[in-house]
Specification:
- The N terminus is likely disordered.
- This protein is mainly beta and about 800 residues long.
- The longest helix is centred in the first third of the chain and has 18 residues.
- The protein has seven helices and 48 strands.
- It folds into two domains: about 110 residues, Immunoglobulin-like (Sandwich); about 550 residues, Maltoporin, Chain A (Beta Barrel), CATH 2.40.170.20.
Length: about 800
């Protein structure tokens, strides 16, 4: 009832905002000139006010004029096929006045330019204008990297480590934190729900990389803008769309095929789109099939050769189906409506480590599926107090099934968890002298369904367990209110201040047989709340050199996976509920340097974050026993507990240098974490890792080679020592060499070829449950017509 009341209240508030208009809109004029770094005019650059239909192309002198623009505050987007996108913000339009922007300069695409982020500040902002450390991976780079998942598209980024529990998995580790301490978004909508577990998961790979316009990673706390879970960082998958821009009308399509040798991958993708003067529609379908993964055969390392099938890690193969569509329309010049839906389903996805380390006869996820649908409205307002508003209504349905059987004679366990999440967010922008305010509210409500059955392997008779992994019928609600102020202190100094209030409500029932029932009763109601703040400074030293300082708070409210989970966890661990948890809190400071001029692009940041009431897995008792026997297996009993204080710190850096058609690039990341209370390392911290390489630009493509590496990680927590995925003595260091090339055979046909791990090294990413691919030949072909 309380959640329904909140939804209704915010809905009335949203309706009132859209219905309010004091007078018919006044209009003004915007003009300017677009040029390259040498001052030469750029002809036919597309100029458009973001979230509107107001736009044009530059003339022979690089000039543009936008007339009859409704007064308000906008972001101006400037694009050209041969130059990097530029966003000028804020752009203020006053009634009956002309705003002359002067000359706006664009950089050529040959250089590694900073790019534009929508995640850090909830508005389109250049990387050099935000204090946080960022990773931006455009869709073109995702394609060039030729990975099989969205997670693999990030594994070459500084500050981002990818752990793979299974061949179909992929979990980002950022600043030493992972799983539900990292917030996942799609188009700014939360994917994290109340069952996201502390152990590494594969939810990032449930976003089809074919749909991406850009992958954005904000490293460090992001709770002020997005709420719980954004401790280590925030990953936002920004999906592509077809907008009704000048000259882009009509039908477009793309056909894509990809083959790989290490897992005999066969991936096929078909996209189609259509645009008119007021609307654009895009959609596509992906079919992916992966067989068992072959690991490397050289440099055999104890602890990495458990496979009973030689170099083939069996079973590890799976199938995947994805589809998506997005409709963008403009019923008025200053109104944008977006309707989108996306679906992913993986079938028969094995947990390879359970077969090799724990001797299971069967252990796989089926299904793993996710569907997200949303409606979004962007509206510019003729209002002296509010310049624009964005409202998003979303529905997210995620399901995960498990089938496990210890031996052929053992009972079969079947589990299913489904989470239906309704979301509503409203975001406003207001402009005052030297201030740009971003503020709003968001609310998400989870309804959890769960079942667990035991099946006799002979009679196939099914018996329902009293409690599933999570209590059936559980509810979890989150509500947030936030405000951020971007302040132009001077021409060279910009400050960003933010604050957020968050509240959470959990309700579920534990059966009388639950080990926690005797302490907490069968009906549990939990409330959490938090106030977080952030402050950042950006100093424009020379125009190409920016120094940043950032301080922020973050938190993670205990979710249903923390407080109510009952069941098997990693290794031979059995988790029991603990409704007495408190939120974990983080306070972080970091300093950075961003360079983006001439032939040099570089970024570096150092950070320190202190965590209190750290939530981690610790020994517990089931009744009075530290062990429990289930289906012939003896498990150690643990629960999520507030284990005290810890800190994480480190260094992240990247550099790229260009000379004519040659580009040399490298990045390194050095993370460190210490649990002060337990006097041991923080669990799951990656080792020192990075890459170095060189790229040669061709007239119609590129060729590059690089080495990716990680050092040995033997700084392990007690929980790491219980993890059979980590070899005794720690995960060995490794380095692999990869060469890839791309070439446009024609205007419509493109080929990408790659040889991954050329020397067939046997290696494992720290914390992973499966070894990396051995020598892997990858080939992809893309046939494309028009802007898909």
């Amino acid at each position: 009832m309380r959640s329904a009341t909140r939804f209704i209240s915010i809905s009335f508030f949203l309706t009132a905002v859209f219905c309010y208009s004091s007078e018919s809109p006044g209009t003004g004029t915007l003009k300017g000139r677009v040029a390259d770094a040498g001052g030469r005019p750029i002809v036919k650059a597309h100029v458009q006010l973001a979230e509107t239909m107001v736009g044009c192309v530059t003339d022979q002198d690089g000039c543009f004029v936008l007339e009859q623009v409704p007064e308000g505050v906008y972001s101006l987007r400037i694009t050209h096929i041969a130059y990097t996108k530029r966003v000028v913000s804020p752009v203020v339009i006053r009634k009956h006045k002309t705003n002359d922007l002067g000359t706006v300069y664009l950089r050529g695409t040959v250089l590694h330019t900073p790019g534009v982020s929508v995640t850090a500040t909830r508005t389109e902002t250049e990387v050099t204008d935000v204090p946080q450390a960022l990773n931006l991976v455009p869709g073109s780079v995702v394609r060039q990297r030729n990975g099989k998942t969205s997670a693999e598209a990030l594994r070459e980024e500084p500050g981002v480590f990818i752990q793979k529990t299974s061949h179909g998995g992929g979990s980002a580790v950022i600043r030493g934190l992972s799983s539900n301490q990292i917030l996942l978004l799609v188009d700014g909508i939360r994917l994290n729900n109340s069952t996201y577990r502390l152990g590494n998961h594969s939810y990032l790979t449930m976003v089809d990389y074919f749909t991406l316009e850009q992958l954005e990673v904000v490293r460090g706390p992001g709770s002020v803008m997005y709420g719980s879970d954004a401790l280590g960082g925030t990953v936002n998958a920004v999906t592509s769309e077809r907008t009704p821009e000048q000259g882009s009308g009509g039908l477009a399509y793309r056909l894509f095929g990809r083959l790989a040798s290490a897992d005999q991958e066969r991936t096929w993708r078909a996209d189609m789109s259509y645009a008119t003067e007021r609307a654009g529609l895009t959609g596509g379908i992906s079919i992916k099939r992966f067989k068992d993964l072959r690991r490397g055969s050289r440099r055999s390392t104890p602890g990495l050769e458990h496979s009973q099938n030689g170099a083939v890690q069996k079973p590890s193969g799976f199938d995947c189906l994805d589809w998506n569509y997005k409709l963008v329309c403009y019923p008025a010049k200053t109104t944008k409506v977006t309707v989108a839906s996306q679906y992913t389903r993986k079938t028969d996805l094995p947990r390879y480590d359970k077969y090799e380390n724990n001797g299971y006869y069967k252990w796989f996820y089926d299904p793993q599926q996710r569907q997200l649908s949303y409606l979004r409205i962007n509206q510019s307002l003729n209002n002296p107090y509010v310049s624009s508003v964005q409202a998003t209504l979303s529905y997210h349905n995620q399901q995960e099934g498990r089938l496990t059987q210890k031996s052929q004679e053992s009972a079969i366990s079947r589990e299913w968890v489904g989470v239906k999440t309704g979301g509503l967010s409203v975001q406003f922008h207001s402009y005052a002298y030297r201030h740009l305010f971003t503020y709003g509210t968001d609310i998400y409500h989870d309804r959890v369904g769960a079942e667990r059955h035991t099946q006799d392997p002979v009679t196939l008779e099914m018996t329902a367990d009293e409690q599933a992994r999570y209590p059936d019928g559980s509810e979890y609600t989150s509500l947030g209110l936030f405000v951020q102020d971007e302040i132009a202190v001077s021409a060279a100094l910009k400050g960003i201040l933010g604050v957020r209030y968050s509240a959470f409500y959990a309700e579920f029932s534990l059966p009388h047989t639950s080990p926690a029932a005797g302490l907490f009763g069968t009906s549990v109601h939990q409330d959490f709340s938090s106030v977080t703040g952030s402050a950042g400074l950006i100093w424009d030293v020379t125009g190409d050199v920016h120094v940043t300082v950032n301080a922020g708070q973050a938190f993670r409210a205990p979710n249903l996976s923390d407080i109510s989970k009952l069941g098997e966890s990693k290794g031979s661990v059995f988790e029991i509920p603990n409704p007495g948890l408190k939120p974990e809190q983080m306070t972080s400071v970091d300093a950075g340097l961003k360079v983006s001029g001439g032939n040099l692009s570089a970024a570096a940041s150092v950070y320190y974050a202190g965590i209190t009431d750290l939530i981690a897995s610790a020994d517990a008792l089931y009744g009075a026993d530290p062990y429990i026997e289930r289906n012939g297996t003896v498990y150690k009993v643990k629960s999520k507990q507030n284990t005290g204080r810890a800190y994480v710190c480190g260094l992240e850096s990247a550099v790229s240098c260009s000379w004519n058609s040659l580009n040399v690039f490298a990045n390194i990341t050095l993370p460190y974490g210490w649990n002060v209370t337990q006097n041991e390392p923080v669990g799951g911290i990656p080792p020192f890792f990075g890459l170095a390489g060189v790229r040669r630009r061709l007239s119609r493509g590129f060729v590059e080679g690089f080495v990716r590496f990680a050092s040995k990680q033997d700084r392990l927590s007690a929980d790491d020592l219980d993890d059979p995925r980590i070899p005794q003595g720690g995960t060995p260091g490794w380095h692999i060499v990869t060469v890839r090339a791309e070439y446009d055979l024609s205007r419509c046909l493109r080929i990408n070829a790659c040889v991954e791990n050329i020397f067939d090294i046997n290696y494992r990413e720290h914390g992973s449950g499966i070894n990396g691919p051995g020598r892997n030949f990858i080939l992809s072909l893309e046939l494309k017509r028009g802007p898909v």
